[in-house]
Amino acid sequence: MRSLIVISSIVMGIWAGIFVVAFSYGLNKQRTQNSIKNSISHIQIHHPEYQKDYDSKFYLKEPDLIKTTLDADSTIKAYAFRSLLNGMVSSPVKSSGVRIIGVNKNQEKELTSIYAGLVNGNYFESKRRNPILVGQALAEKLKIKVQSKVVLTFQDSENNIVSGAFRVCGIFKTQYTKHDQGNVFIENKDIQRLLKSEEFHQVALLCNSIEQVDSTYKKLKTNLTNYEVKDWKSISPELAYADKIMESWLFLIMVIIMLALIFGIINTMLMAIFERRKELGMLMAIGMNRSKIFFLVLTETLFLSIIGAPTGLLLGALTIKITSQTGINLGIIAQGLESVGLSAIIYPEIQPHFYLFITIMVFLFTLIAAIYPSRKALKLKPTEAIRTI
Amino acid sequence: MEIIKTNKLTKIYNNNGMKVLAVNNVDLSINEGEFTAIVGPSGSGKTTLLNMIGGLDNITHGRVEISGTDISTLTDNQLIDFRLQNIGFVFQAYNLIPVLTAKENVEFIMLLQGISEKERKLRSEELLRDVGLVDKLNVRPNQLSGGQQQRVAVARALASKPSFILADEPTANLDSSSTANLLDMMAEMNEKEKVTFLFSTHDQRVIDRAKRIITIEDGKIISDERT
Fold first, then answer.
1. CA A1/CA A371 separation, integer angstroms
2. Based on the domain organization, do A65 and A205 belong to the same domain?
3. Domain count, chain A
4. Does A296 touch chain B (CB under 8 A)?
5. Which pairing describes strands A328-329 and A183-187: parallel, antiparallel, or unpaired?
6. Which of B37, B48, B50, B41 minimizes the C-alpha distance to B199?
7. Which of B57, B58, B83, B160 to mutate to test the interface with A (most CBs of A within 10 A)?
8. Is residue A128 domain-resident?
9. How many Cβ atoms are within 10 Å of A162's Cβ, its own excluded?
10. Distance CA A153, CA A97 (A)
11. Which domain holds residue A262?
12. Exposed e or buried b for every residue in A168-185, given b needs 16+ CB within 10 A?
């Protein structure tokens, strides 16, 4: 029974450890992926001065050169030229400050999840002039719906105020409420007609995989020296930082869980020694030397972890396998999660090397946990232990 | 031949700052083949004397020699090994390992001595036959009566081929019939195989069978009689 309790605590400790690690890793990965997919992409190209104060006069001077460079790179999956303006969107009842993003609808469809995230209306398919896509959070704030009319107001490159009436063709929803509330999408041709010039302020691009970003970023930085090229880590340093500290964070979580496990094992093994002190005293009396007594208790504890560890690992792996497909629905706190860019459904994920890491940690910590009870056993005096009833 | 010799053996316990003289300058000599009972009332120092002879308790003053070796000069590990090779113990509460069978309990001490599996098997079966438990080889202690468990304990004590056996109140937990059987068995071993037994007891049934009776009171030997 006692052994069963120790084994169960090891199993539960490992299972919980794996699950927490996988959940945290999945959560962070999803947050990064959501940000990349919804707004920042893998790499962005701007005029070197543009990001200082987002002035629309700093547009990309040679878009054809950029296009040729991007077309020649096979690691690039999709890219989109965008016009970016800071302005105001006004409905009949309310106004809100927004970033106006002028897009090529076909390019954008490949790049971001705006098309996939449409919850109402259509994706620039309206026959009417000046269609606009707004986020659900903004639509609720402005009390507008599909077919509603809104007015966009912004400054052109010569600081003149420009206004235009747009009709809502679709409403989208991403996993980031602030993004939905702060960005509106219109077609490049419409914005350029209002500005009376063909200006692009940003090229956003996606690589075939996140692993290719570093090499593509270096190539583009070398080839497009007149532009500012930034990868997702420098566009959103907080995401890169979270990604960087995740391993240390997960390590810390595991250490905390293992510490709890250690105290559980120490407690149970001390109880085991207390209950069996008569037996241990007899073994000492008849001639079992101290090193053998020490290794007896040590081996017993390790043996329990040999049974518990694989069971916990297996249970953890099975849980991750199932939940990575079904996801864990945190719909009850969806609003809170979406306000920080997280989906309501979390897909736990774990890197294979973590299993090895956890296994080593369990044995190491069990060994540490076994030392104190083993030393305690050595301090038993045979005469006192035998007398115990 | 002298197996056990004590010289001015003294034990003083420190009981919360109060010194208690448990064994007081005891000079004792036990020869090979003796069947000796140390008798006396509770608290007279019988068990303490036995524990010091068996190397289980520290000596305050004096010395204990077992087959010519002064055990107080041995280190802890040397003393443990000395006990393993030279002394057999029979405890009042049997103290068998509950998860092992009778045969495994007897074999265990031989395992500590590094005896081969074949020899362990043969000797454990032979000893259990000698104590009348050949049909209980694979039975665990909880399925044996008190008397049977104490017989296994005697077989275990003999398994290491010790110079002598120390038995602390071996019959204290046994009924009359079990006590008689156990004493018959030990007396037979003493007669036939010249096994030396040293008991501590206040059980009259044991005293009646002993060949030498050493009476101890307040830690001092007050009489030493041979029957």
1. 22
2. yes
3. 2
4. no
5. unpaired
6. B37
7. B83
8. yes
9. 15
10. 10
11. 2-34+240-387
12. bbbbbbbbbbebbbbbbb
Residues A274-305 have pLDDT tens digits of: 888 888 888 888 888 888 888 888 888 888 88
List, for residues A178-210, the tens digit of each pLDDT value: 889 999 999 988 988 888 878 889 999 999 998
Taking CB atoms and an 8 Å cut-off, how many pairs form between chains A and B?
51
| DSSP conformational letter for A224 | -
Q: At residue B107, does pLDDT exceed 90?
A: yes
Whether B77 sits inside 8 A of A289 (CB atoms) is yes
A289 and A188 housed in the same domain: no
d(CA B113, CA B99): 20
Domains contained in chain B, CATH given: 33-46+83-226 (3.40.50.300)
A61-93 pLDDT, tens digit each: 888 889 999 999 899 999 999 998 889 999 998
- B54 contacts A279? CB cut-off 8 A: no
Residue-wise pLDDT for A222-250, tens only, equals 988 889 999 998 888 888 888 778 878 88
CB contact under 8 A, A287 and B112: yes
Domain final residue, candidates A191, A226, A261: A226
User: Using a CB-CB distance cutoff of 8 angstroms, which residues of chain A are in contact with residue B76?
Assistant: 290
Q: How confident is the model at residue A388 (pLDDT cuts 50, 70, 90)?
A: very low
Give me the residue from A279, A285, A290 closest to B89, CB to CB. Answer: A285
**Residue among B56, B77, B113 minimizing CB distance to A285:** B56
C-alpha distances in Å from residue A202, one per residue of A42, A88, A178, A205: 13, 20, 20, 10
| Domain match, A252 and A382 both | yes
Domain boundary among A226, A261, A290: A226
- The single residue listed with the structure tokens 């930034």 is A230
Do the Cβ atoms of B85 and A290 come within 8 Å?
no
Structure confidence by residue, pLDDT tens digits, B121-142 = 999 999 999 888 899 999 999 9
DSSP assignment string, A329-360 = E-GGGHHHHHHTT--SEE-----HHHHHHHHH
Residue B91 corresponds to which tokens in the numbers above? 């405890």
Q: Which of B76, B84, B91 sits opposite A287 (nearest CB)?
A: B84
